Amino acid sequence: MEVRFFGVRGGVPTPEAGKLRFGGNTSCVTVRAAGAPLVILDAGTGIRILGNELVRQHPAGGIEGVILLSHLHWDHIQGIPFFKPLFHPGNRFEFIGLRPVGTSLRCQLEGQQNYAYFPVDMSHMSAAKSFREVADESFQLGTLKVSCRLLNHPGGCLGWRLEADGAAVVYATDNEHTGPGPEEAVVELARGADLFIFDTNYTPEEYAAGRQGWGHSTWLQAVINARAAGVDRLILFHHDQDHNDDQLLEIEELACREFPRSLAAREGLRVVLNGRGTGPEPRCLIELPGLEA
């Protein structure tokens, strides 16, 4: 199983000097497994980069993918109008997200491209599109077993667990961890995972200074859950738009002191999950220039 990071920020994109080492695009991560469609976790501005890559690789179309949405706040869907594969009639995508109250997932996504906000509505996107609404449940995407769990975030949010070939990756962004101990729902979702991607938007000091109720966690809360769940690798994710490269390096260092197999997400990060019992190789192989596995 391969995991790649195309957008790692929360809030808004940050195309600024001093923030380029980690990247400035908002949330988008892909998962590939043999016998399964391309899975895209969230559709922040990072999905534009992914889309350009897919078009270069498949200029004639034929792309099939599933877009798993944690929730519909702008930093998780704002890349959809700029995702070029959605404009090719030979492509097919399924959007899967939280079951809304009083409306539908399709209507909510179409609303972002209402003419008042964007000049091209979803009807101009000629790829085949389908929409599925889920809550706390599990289902199959080819060889991938997908499980989702409700997280603690204003308006609702889903955490995702994807398993195949003896490996598991958990994507639990935009979750507010309350209380000093592990969070039961998160630990249950992440138990034994090879790769645990978790919201670390704030520092503990920022959170204590008035960010309670805003729906995000800290590197320390991530470590608490990673330990309790017995994960192999912790990825710090959904970086605050005001944190620069130096601050993120400091956050990464602090997390590593408590949980040595921690890493702050960077655009371009690639992780290969080997699963267990496949030989002497580590469960998670990290590939990024300048970093050791």
Write the topology of this structure.
Elements: E1 2-7, E2 28-32, E3 38-41, H1 46-57, E4 64-68, E5 92-98, H2 105-112, E6 128-134, E7 137-141, E8 144-150, E9 158-164, E10 167-172, H3 184-190, E11 195-199, H4 204-208, H5 219-229, E12 233-237, H6 245-258, E13 262-264, E14 270-273, E15 284-287
Parallel strand pairs: 3-4, 4-5, 5-6, 10-11, 11-12, 12-13
Antiparallel strand pairs: 1-2, 1-14, 2-3, 7-8, 8-9, 9-10, 14-15
Record keyword descriptors for this entry.
15 strands, about 290 residues, Metallo-beta-lactamase, Chain A, 7-stranded mixed β-sheet, alpha/beta
Strand runs, count: 15
Q: Using the coordinates above, name the CATH class.
A: Alpha Beta
Query: What count of domains describes the coordinates?
Result: 1
Overall shape = globular
Task: Enumerate the spans where pLDDT stays under 50 for 5 or more consecutive residues.
Answer: none
Please identify, by name, the CATH architecture: 4-Layer Sandwich
The helicity comes to: 10-25%
Within the CATH hierarchy, at the fold level, what is the topology? Metallo-beta-lactamase, Chain A
Largest sheet: 8 strands, mixed
Order of the strands making up the biggest sheet: 6-5-4-3-2-1-14-15
Class from helix and strand fractions: alpha/beta
Q: Percent of residues in beta strands?
A: 25-35%
Would you mind describing this structure in some detail?
The chain is α/β, with parallel strands linked by helices and 293 residues long. It has one domain (2-287): 4-Layer Sandwich (Metallo-beta-lactamase, Chain A). The chain is 19% helix and 27% strand. The chain contains six helices and 15 strands. It has helices at residues 46-57, 105-112, 184-190, 204-208, 219-229, 245-258; strands at 2-7, 28-32, 38-41, 64-68, 92-98, 128-134, 137-141, 144-150, 158-164, 167-172, 195-199, 233-237, 262-264, 270-273, 284-287. The strands form two sheets. The chain has an eight-stranded mixed sheet with strand order 6-5-4-3-2-1-14-15. A seven-stranded mixed sheet has the order 7-8-9-10-11-12-13. Helix 3 (184-190) crosses helix 5. The mean pLDDT is 94.
